[in-house]
Design goal:
elongated; seven-stranded antiparallel sheet; 23% helix; alpha+beta; single chain; six-stranded antiparallel sheet
């Protein structure tokens, strides 16, 4: 009986190790409770990399050379010059297990990270502060809830509150974290992990062309004509052009202002092509499309915009001013670091 039990146990272990996440966990050689030595998040990429310790609840898609690659169902994005990451993935990456991530809707939407051996970190939805072991620090952005009910936290402030150094690599759109007091990861180390992480490539459109300076390009669709008077490119009710102050501009058109033979759906399809090739696919482009879709008549104001318009930061760091132009939505874009 004992021999049969040992055989059965061996079979079960082999079966378990055939599961991908089990193999990944087996490959990790870490000491529980240690902070990971390096974390990389890439804006627009639904996968992050962690070198060293991963909490037990994390299931990497693969582990290679001591680095865990973990898939997410939501990609980090930039808003108000800060990178936001879903709370669970951000906390996990920094060494906090799922069991120690607490959400209290009755407390006004308070998030608490209470991993043993780490500072106790607290934040609240819509409020610009972070607490680390009771020390409250004012910050310039607030945690937010994004559709469909996802809690998003600013990566830098959470990482710093948990005891990490943070560096932003704008040319790669990458957030780098490592434990405070430990050596900073080298550029070669980061480069090697990013190559395996599979950082997203810029879109490679076919047809059409880019106009504007290298740090502020906008896409002109194939077949666009040039309008007399303002010199803008035009196709299916969408205008694209360069402004006198160095901005690039994109205009949509309402149904009642379109030329005969062009439908509102055709205008939206052309606008999506322009926005996707200019900013890349993702939440930011989808939001701009929603704004344009709600502005279907010059007789009504767009319900998604304040009267004075709104300024947002695109995923590539550019500043974007969006407002209701009456006969369509006006989008002005300036290079990173150049405000309105």
């Amino acid at each position: 009986m004992k021999k049969a039990a040992r055989v059965l146990l061996g079979v079960l272990l082999l079966a378990l190790l055939s599961v991908p996440w089990a193999r990944a966990q087996q490959e990790q050689v870490v000491v529980k409770g240690e902070k990971p030595s390096l974390i990389l998040f890439v804006v627009g990429k639904a996968r992050y990399a962690v070198k060293g310790y991963c909490p037990p609840s994390v299931r990497p898609s693969r582990v290679e050379g001591g680095v865990s690659y973990v898939d997410m169902d939501v990609a980090p994005y930039i808003e108000s010059d800060r990178t936001f990451v879903p709370v669970r993935y951000l906390a996990n990456a920094l060494g906090v297990d799922n069991a120690n991530i607490h959400w209290c809707p009755k407390c006004g939407g308070k998030v608490t990270l209470a991993e043993p051996g780490f500072p106790r970190v607290e934040m609240k939805i819509g409020e610009k502060w972070v607490s680390s072991d009771g020390q409250v620090r004012e910050i310039d952005v607030a945690p937010a809830i994004k559709d469909p009910g996802r809690t998003m936290l600013p990566a830098r402030f959470v990482a710093e509150a948990l005891g990490f150094e943070v560096e932003w690599l704008p040319e790669k759109q990458v957030v780098v974290c490592w434990p405070k007091g430990k050596p900073k990861p080298t550029a070669d180390e980061i480069k090697q992990i990013l190559e395996k992480l599979g950082a997203p490539e810029p879109p490679k459109p076919t047809g059409g062309k880019f106009i504007g300076p290298e740090n502020n390009r906008v896409w002109v669709p194939e077949g666009a004509s040039v309008l007399e008077g303002n010199g803008n490119y035009y196709k299916n009710g969408v205008q694209v052009g360069l402004d006198f102050d160095g901005s690039v501009k994109i205009f949509s058109t309402t149904t009642d202002c379109l030329e005969p033979g062009v439908t509102f759906d055709q205008m939206l399809a052309t606008l999506r092509e322009v926005l996707t090739n200019t900013f890349g696919p993702g939440e930011f482009t989808d939001w701009l499309m929603d704004v344009a879709r709600h502005k279907d008549s010059r007789k009504k104001e767009c319900p998604l915009l304040p009267v004075e318009g709104v300024i947002k930061t695109a995923p590539d760091g550019r500043n974007v001013f969006v407002y209701d132009g009456g006969d369509g939505i006006a989008i002005f874009v300036r290079p990173p670091g150049v405000g309105f």
